[in-house]
Amino acid sequence: MPSSDWRAPAAYGHAHSIPAAGFAWEYLRRDDGYRRDFQRMKRVSGHDAEAQTAFANRWGLRFRGGPGPARRSRRALLDARASA
After folding, report:
1. In whole angstroms, what is the distance from residue 58 CA to residue 71 CA?
2. Quick check: 5 and 11 in contact, CB under 8 A?
3. pLDDT tens for the chain, residues 1 to 84
4. Would you call 66 helix, strand, or coil by DSSP?
């Protein structure tokens, strides 16, 4: 969960200076459905391209680069807890 109270206006002081993708992430990481899907994805084999594509399409995610070890390591970036 986010470490600050999402209802407090002071928790969003930085929102004036973040890009659109960062602003979208602030909402996505709080979505219970996303958090559940992400936990499921962590249990799926990194070689299941179909599951990865479905996850990305459902949440409107885009990844730079192609598949492979570098792409799998980015999974931690999508963890809502990592950005809290």
Report:
1. 18
2. yes
3. 456 677 788 777 777 788 888 878 888 888 999 999 989 988 887 778 888 889 989 998 876 665 555 555 555 556 655 555
4. coil
Structural domain count of the chain: 1
Structural domain containing residue 66 = 9-78
Q: Where are the alpha helices (DSSP H) in the chain?
A: 20-28, 32-43, 49-59, 69-73
Q: How many helices (H) and strands (E) does the chain have?
A: 4, 0
Q: Look at residue 28 and tell me if it is in a domain.
A: yes
Q: pTM score, two decimals?
A: 0.57
Which token pair is 6? 């999402």
Instruction: Evaluate whether residue 1 is within a structural domain.
Output: no
